[in-house]
Every structure is written in structure tokens, then in C-alpha cells.
Amino acid sequence: MTKEKVREIIEKNGGRAENILAMLLDCQYASYEGYVDAETAAHIAHELGLSETRVFELLTYYAMLQTKPQAKYVLMVCNSSPCHFTKANEVTQVLEKQLGVKLGETTADGLFVYHYTACVGACDIGPVIKVNDKVFGNLDEGAIVGLLNGLRDGTIEV
Ligand code: FES
Description:
The chain has seven helices and four strands, in the order H-H-H-H-E-H-H-E-E-E-H. Helix content is 46%, strand content 11%. By secondary structure, the protein is α+β, with helices and mostly antiparallel strands. It folds into two domains: 3-61, no CATH class; 73-153, Glutaredoxin (3-Layer(aba) Sandwich), CATH 3.40.30.10. The chain has helices at residues 3-12, 20-30, 38-48, 52-61, 81-85, 88-99, 141-153; strands at residues 73-78, 112-117, 129-131, 134-136. It is globular. The chain has a four-stranded mixed beta sheet with strand order 2-1-3-4, with helices on one face. Strand 3 (129-131) and strand 4 (134-136) form a beta hairpin. Bound molecules: FE2/S2 (inorganic) cluster (FES). FE2/S2 (inorganic) cluster (FES) is lined by residues 78, 80, 82-83, 119-123, 126, 128. Residues 78, 80, 82-83, 119-123, 126, 128 line the site of FE2/S2 (inorganic) cluster.
């Protein structure tokens, strides 16, 4: 993650060390592979005037924080209100059926994990899944299966 992105997340959370958990979670959700890498953790420590050891203690203490890549593809399902009304919950049902894992669990082949995210700015094409910086919208079961297959065989690049 770029230093600019980390700084943006720190500022969004008020720039105060007491908000470090929210910052770490935001960094995790913003990362492509769903974890806080060592460089990002060190940058947060530096920006907040904390020791790197303290930040790593937090990262390893809280189970919700990940220090290793969760999967090759982290599928972020928007569940903010507009997408919720376009049946974002059905998207996760299809993902569970197709991938055989629940929200937040990684598939055995290490390819996929999926979780909820806040609005990604594509409300007009909900429900949506964001993978890296790409947003896939108007998702029904067929489109989701197509997306998963495309990511698996490389015909869809993200
Ligand atoms: S509410 Fe889902 S993209 Fe905006």
C-alpha cells in the first residue's frame, strides 16, 4: 500500500493513536490481499509516533487483523444500504454455495476469500463485488459464477 493511501486512512480516522484499530482495519480492507503488511504497519507506527513493536502487538493480538495474505483474490461485497436493497445478501449466498466457504474464510486452494465492505461508489450498478480496484456490478448468480471462473482461468484480470 502506498504511503499516501496509509496517510489518507490515518487522516480519515482523526490522526490519533487511540483510533489505531480502525486504521489497521481500514488498511486491511484496502489492501488487495486482505492483510496489513509489515511496511504498512511500520508506516502507521511512524506516523502516530508509536513503536513498531506496539503496532505488531496489536496486529497479532486481535484475531480480526491479518498479517498474512488471506487469498489471491479478496472479493469485497458492498453491503451499504443501496446495495443492500439490491440484494447484496444474495451475493454472499451465491459465493458461499460456489466457493464452499463462509464469509471471511479462505478457500482450500488459497484463491478466494470474501467479506463485506462499505459503499465502493458504484451504487447505480448494485449489487457489486470489488476485487482490487475493479468493480463488478449488476451481479446475479450467472455473473458471479462467470467472475469466479474468469479469475480462476485468468480471462478476467484485476
Ligand atoms: S452502496 Fe454499494 S456501491 Fe454504493
